[in-house]
UniProtKB/TrEMBL annotation:
This is Malate dehydrogenase. Substrate binds at R92, R98, N131, R162. It catalyses: (S)-2-hydroxyglutarate + NAD(+) = 2-oxoglutarate + NADH + H(+); (S)-malate + NAD(+) = oxaloacetate + NADH + H(+). One of its GO terms (biological process) is tricarboxylic acid cycle.
C-alpha cells in the first residue's frame, strides 16, 4: 500500500461535502489503491453535525480511509496537506450586496490561504469551490505566497459538465461522446460556455458541435443562457443549491489533477491567468481549457477565437477584474 495522503475538505458538515466525502474515501478521486487521511474542517457550531458525518464515514467501512480528523481549528486542518478542497464559504443571504459577500469571503480565504502557507506542504493542490470561487481562489493564492500559483484552481467543471450534458441531450448521445466544450471566465452568470471547439461522436464519427447540433441559434442563445443560469434554476426547483452535481464535478476536477486528462481532450478549470495567449488580463483566476499531465496543468494554446467568443470572454474578464479590485481593497494591501 502507498503512504496515505492528507486531504482536507472545508465546509465538511455542509451538503456538498455530504455528497463528496464518500467518493473521496472510496477511492474514486485519488485512486483505488491510495490510502487517505481525511481532514474535515467546519465552524464550531457545526461540529455536532460533523460528528454525525464522521460516524457515517466510519460506518461505510471503507478500506482506504485510514483516519478521519474533524476539527474547527485551521492549524489542525491544514497540517501537511497533499490536497485541499475549500468548499466552505459565506453564502449570499437575501438582501446581501455582492460587495458584502466579497468582504466576508475575503476574510475566510485570506485566513485559509495563510493557514496553507503556514501548515500545508508546498506541493499541496488547492481547489476552491466556495463562491465567488474565482476571486476566493485568487485571495487564497495571494495569501500563500510560497505556494506556487499554479497549485491553485477553482471549480468550473460543474459548468463544463452542464454544457457537455446539454449538447449530449440535444444530439441524443451519452455525455461521454461530447468533448472539448470550454467554460471561459468567471463561475458566475457572465461565464461563456463555448462549443466552437467541441466535438460530438455521432455513430462512430466525430463531428464539430455546430454540425452535430444543426441549430446555430440555440447554440448561440438558449444553450449559453441555460448553462449560465443552471445553478439558479436548481435552487428555484430544489430550494437548495447544487450539491450532488457539484460533488461529482469536484471529483472529476481533482481526479484529472491527480491522474491527468485523456489524450486530445481538454477540460475547463479556473487557473491563474499569467502569460496566456488569449489576451486575458494578468493576475486573475480565469477559467480556461486545460490539459493536465504529471499533476501540472497547461492552458490549451492557439485555439482560434471569433468575434462572438471574444466579446463574451472580455465581458466575463471585466467582471473578474472588478471583483478582484474590490476584494483586494478588503485585503488591506495591494
Amino acid at each position: 500500500m502507498a503512504e496515505p495522503i492528507r486531504v482536507l475538505v472545508t465546509g465538511a458538515a455542509g451538503q456538498i461535502a455530504y455528497s463528496l466525502l464518500f467518493s473521496i474515501a472510496k477511492g474514486d478521486v485519488f485512486g483505488k489503491d491510495q490510502p487517505i487521511v481525511l481532514l474535515l474542517l467546519d465552524i464550531t457550531p457545526m461540529l455536532p453535525v460533523l460528528d454525525g458525518v464522521v460516524m457515517e464515514l466510519q460506518d461505510c467501512a471503507l478500506p482506504l480511509l485510514k483516519e478521519i480528523i474533524p476539527t474547527d481549528k485551521e492549524e489542525v486542518a491544514f497540517k501537511d496537506l497533499d490536497a485541499a478542497i475549500l468548499v466552505g464559504s459565506m453564502p449570499r443571504k437575501e438582501g446581501m450586496e455582492r460587495k458584502d459577500l466579497l468582504k466576508a469571503n475575503v476574510a475566510i480565504f485570506k485566513s485559509q490561504g495563510a493557514a496553507l502557507e503556514k501548515y500545508a506542504k508546498k506541493t499541496v493542490k488547492v481547489l476552491v469551490v466556495g463562491n465567488p470561487a474565482n476571486t476566493n481562489c485568487l485571495i487564497a493564492a495571494k495569501s500563500a505566497p510560497s505556494i506556487p500559483k499554479e497549485n491553485f484552481s477553482c471549480l468550473t467543471r460543474l459548468d463544463h459538465n452542464r454544457a457537455r450534458s446539454q449538447v449530449a441531450m440535444r444530439c441524443g448521445v451519452p455525455a461521454s461522446q461530447v468533448k472539448n466544450v470550454i467554460i471561459w471566465g468567471n463561475h458566475s452568470s457572465t461565464q461563456y460556455p463555448d462549443v466552437h471547439h467541441c466535438l460530438v461522436n455521432m455513430s462512430g464519427s466525430e463531428l464539430a458541435c455546430f454540425d452535430a447540433v444543426k441549430d446555430d441559434a440555440w447554440l448561440k442563445g438558449d444553450f449559453i443562457t441555460t448553462v449560465q443560469q443552471r445553478g439558479a434554476a436548481v435552487i428555484k426547483a430544489r430550494k437548495l443549491s447544487s450539491a450532488m452535481s457539484a460533488a461529482k464535478a469536484i471529483c472529476d476536477h481533482m481526479r484529472d489533477i491527480w491522474s491527468g486528462t485523456p489524450e486530445n481532450e481538454f477540460i475547463s478549470m479556473g487557473v491563474y491567468s499569467s502569460g496566456n495567449s488569449y489576451g486575458v488580463p494578468e493576475d486573475l483566476i480565469y477559467s480556461f481549457p486545460v490539459q493536465i499531465k504529471g499533476k501540472t496543468w497547461k492552458i490549451v494554446d492557439g485555439l482560434p477565437i471569433n468575434d462572438f467568443s471574444r466579446s463574451k470572454m472580455d465581458a466575463t474578464a471585466a467582471e473578474l477584474i472588478e471583483e478582484r479590485d474590490t476584494a483586494v481593497t478588503f485585503l488591506g494591501n495591494k
